[in-house]
Structures are given as structure tokens and as C-alpha cells.
Amino acid sequence: MSATAGLIVGYLIGINFPYVALTKIYVPTNPRGAESLPPEIVVSETDLYLRRLWGKPSEDLKKKPKYLVTFTVGWDQRHNIDAAVKKFSEDFQILLFHYDGRTTEWDRYEWSKKSIHISVKRQTKWWYAKRFLHPDIVAAYEYIFIWDEDLGVKHFNGDK
């Protein structure tokens, strides 16, 4: 008997306080299919500029990078990548595509903390480029470099 009474009370509470109405966001101005996303999260254009979610405004980008350089990397090639990245100035945004899934090991390099990391195991640079270098994203940069991880940089100067 108490179980039946509990079901009836629970049903009545559910009718009066629907769960969906308390948690659902609905923004009619968002594009079709994205109405439930928070306001201003949907924009017509995007880029890869790093932005803070919280913290001090002094942590924001001082200037936006003019160039994008991507590396498809595995941990075994870390010395080549470190040497290559050091050749690029602050005008370059570094984007690392990790084909071996090892991203946290790169944190030992100071430049890696300002880089963008995308990790999908066992993929090629063109697979990454096709999926992550959308025209809206790369439009913000003057030049884009898709670099091979084993390319030597002894005589390379990124600013020339």
C-alpha cells in the first residue's frame, strides 16, 4: 500500500515540477538543431585563437598570430619537433596533431603550453587537415604550413 501511495505522490510531483523545464535551454535565434546550446556559443565564423574561459584578462593573447603551422607528431619525433618549433616566432600558431595519443608528455616543452593539441590515434596529416583545417578556421591566418615531423630545419628561418 505504501508503495502505491509513493508512486502516486511521485507522479503528482513529476507533473507539477517537470525535470526538463528546469534544465533545458532553448534559444530560438540559434540555427536549427542548435537551439538547446547556450546563447552566443554558436557563431558564424571561428578560428584557432586561444581564449581563456576564466582567469585574468592579462592571460589573453597580446597579439593574434599571423601564420598557422601544423605538425603531425609522434612522441618519438619530439626532438625534431622541438627544434622546428623553436625556429618559428610568436607570429606563428603551433598546432600539433598527435597520431600516437601521447599529448601530456609534450607539456615538458614551454612552447607546448601555448600550442593547440588534437589527438586521434593512427591517422595521417591529410586526414587531420581535411577534418580540422576548415576554411573558416584557416581564413584568419595569412599563411598555413603543414609540416612533416621529420623535415630538417638546420637552415630554415620561419620569418623569411
UniProtKB/TrEMBL annotation:
InterPro entries: DUF707
Pfam families: DUF707
Tree of life domain: Eukaryota
The protein's name: Uncharacterized protein
